[in-house]
Amino acid sequence: MTKKLIILGAGESGIGAALLGKQQGYDVFVSDGGTIKDIYKQELAVNHIPFEEGQHSWDVILGADEIVKSPGIPEKTELMKKIRAKGVPVISEIELAYRFSKDAKIIAITGSNGKSTTTALTFHIFETAGLNAAMVGNIGLSYARVVATAPADYYIVEVSSFQLDDIVEFKPNVAILLNITPDHLDRYDYKMENYVESKFRITMNQGPEDFFVYCKDDQEIDNYLKKQTIYSTSIPFTIMEPLKQGGFMVNDQVNIQVNDEPVIVSMYDLALKGKHNLYNSMAAGIAGRTMEIRKEKIRESLTSFKSLEHRMEYVSTVRGVDFINDSKATNVNSLWFALESMETPVVLIMGGVDKGNDYSAIRELVKEKVKAIICLGIDNAPIQEALSKDTPVMVDTRSMKEAVDAAFQHAEKGDVVLLSPACASFDLFKNYEDRGKQFKDAVREL
């Protein structure tokens, strides 16, 4: 009997799951309550995969043998409640992809902040070492798509808590947990402990032959590890103290001590600047060493890496003012990291869809570094209420061009205009990439 596989949601992960399901002989049907992008519709048609959009055929969905759910679909929807009541097994796309890539080595990276940067840096290390590696997950192509179309020996997978919520057997050889700060709490009944549990699911199937790489300086991670047992081999990283094994700092040098071959790089030689990137660089370097990549290759990679588009990306200097695109900063913590790494006065463009943000964490940095906040969003009231006392200038704008023009007016030679929104982009833009691209276009028009 052919297994009936229903894919809910036809974004990149849903399409990847559909292609892999079809390739592996499942009877696949894709259902999306919204509209499906034309490019994805064409792919489904070419591969003879039936689909529906703008609706969900409940009887078809509830008749599935298994459902792959898009990470974006919350459990509290009526459809998910019905699926759970019927007891149809639900998995995430990374679970499906794992099922058909168990022979490969898997390095999975999660955390509230820094996932994309660390994933890209880890991939850069594996690529520099000449290994057949693929960078997948929340960054670029979906894991399932790559397993179906261009299998690799190593998968460097960026995973979110939403994806981890629906894993069953997914077991990375190396699990990296960078940090845990409040984010997406609306999906976890506003309980931090639920969100923490969700992040730690990355380790749930690991054994002693696997590695768990984590930030020892993160309070939430530290608290959890005091109460729970992790069965994999733990490798911590920290900037607070020297360690026998793991990542640590001594005299401004990053030390990665794994497998008796220390990798030592001056922090000033690292390609990525800022305190948070010391952590990201250590995590990526440790991942490389667990897979026996030579220390010379790791050192070379950590010093030659080019950062990601829309993540602290230098755009241009106009009349002595630097413009930085950090559109990928969709939560307060990402903005905190961006401000923390700034050395010169900042004109900050921020705002968008507020996920119940608590701005108190950035107030000190705003007082110290930000000379003006340009609010960019349909509802800027939460930012104005939270931060108007901490900066001398607060301007309301409704389009990227207006925001960039206002920022430029308030900036002087030697200042930085930083787009680091701390919010989702869906009020005025398609996504954070669209927001970043519009920022770059507006800067080029100055």
Integer count of domains: 3
Q: In percent, how helical is the residue content?
A: 25-40%
Judged by helices, strands and strand pairing, the structural class is: alpha/beta
User: CATH fold name of the largest domain, please?
Assistant: UDP-N-acetylmuramoyl-L-alanine:D-glutamate ligase
Total DSSP helices: 17
Tell me the β content.
15-25%
For the record, give the distance between the C-alpha atoms at the N and C termini, rounded to a whole number: 63 Å
Query: What would the principal axes of the Cα set say about the shape?
Result: globular
Q: Indicate the mean pLDDT.
A: 92
Unreliable residue stretches? none
Give the CATH architecture of the largest domain: 3-Layer(aba) Sandwich
Please give the number of β-strands.
20
Please give the order of strands in the largest beta sheet.
7-8-6-9-10-11
